[in-house]
What we know:
alpha+beta; single chain
Amino acid sequence: MSNVAQHLAQYALKCADIMIPKPGTDLTKWAVVACDQYTSEPEYWEQVADYVKDAPSTLNLIYPEVYLEEADPQKRIKSINETMQAYIKQGIFTTYPNCFFLVHRTTDNCPGGRWGLLVTLDLEHYDYAKDSRTLIRATEGTILSRIPPRKEIRRNAPLELPHIMVLINDAKRSVIEPLANKTDTLEKVYDTELMANGGHLSAWKVDRQEDLQAIALAVEAMHADLDPSNPLLFAMGDGNHSLATAKSCWEDIKQGLSEDGRKNHPARYALVELENIFDPGLAFEPIHRVLFNLSRQTFLEEIAKVCESYVVSKASSKEEVLQQINVNDGLQKFGYCDAEGFLVIGMRESKASIAAGTLQLVIDSLLAQKLATVDYIHGVEVAANLGKKKGNIALILPDVSKATFFDTIIKDNALPRKTFSMGEAHEKRYYMEARRIQP
Length: 439
């Protein structure tokens, strides 16, 4: 192992043999959006299949979660594995050995784009348990029941294709941004439009020793600023259950390996895209909550149980709500909307460090008592319109702070489920690159 590789390995990073389709492949048909999107819209995936037809496509290599409840999942899994083997035998891939990829994605909502670095992370440094102290961690609670069906897909797959995005807390913009400023010196490996309003995606190979060393030194400096007893270096953005599945599969595989066999087995690592949380192109949006069949009085009684005291003020519109809940005045605030109008509620000495956490305690209590049902809603307009209906209550959350995001995870161990979203469905990561995970 080279000195640079050893340096990177200290921080759970490893170069990868990254595979992409050879020139001449229609990459717009090849790349499809993350499998956990459009889960209530089978027509989206039907349109993708109709567009792809018989062309080589990652659609044939992934399991869209809209189909997870189908009658014979093993049939689709078998087809996925067979197609992976067929693509390998047909020689459709070009392999770029021992490198990272710098990637750039633009969409209609983000014409300036966002930057990422495709790397492999060492799963030995990852633990999805809520109280973990590892370098790589979940940001939201991992639902263990979601892992077994995903393991069925990965267990015999010769390839992995990542839709996982992992965040770094790089306020100095020292890891990814220096590469973004020198793309004219890097080899471009692809440049393509994405289907279904996905925008544009480009990538450059990063394999020069001086560039890899600069990355290692920048990550080392980030690590030096962390609490040694709680060193959160990499926080999950998207794809938490996919990374948890990779970890679970690796724990199974390594039981049958010697110590030497464990060191470089490809399944020990997972291909992910690192993104700087401070990238201005990275959208961080709160996910709101709507409660059904609940009275204002019952809701406020529950609020009183999760804070020392609270204050309620009226608001004339959702715009006023958004303005007030994002003012930092020492109160933990959220917006409220029911058939009678908008309120802003501010809590003192609440039981979680962010409003989403405190409200989740209320929601869990209401669900346990069977006093209400809940849905998680993207977009304040949709949430407010639902909240205005009789018997409903919309809870409008403040913006998720990039500056305190990592500190919140360290303090609370993990965020409540569905606290934030990184962009809309069509802005999620598209499958493009692949990597072998079998020797």
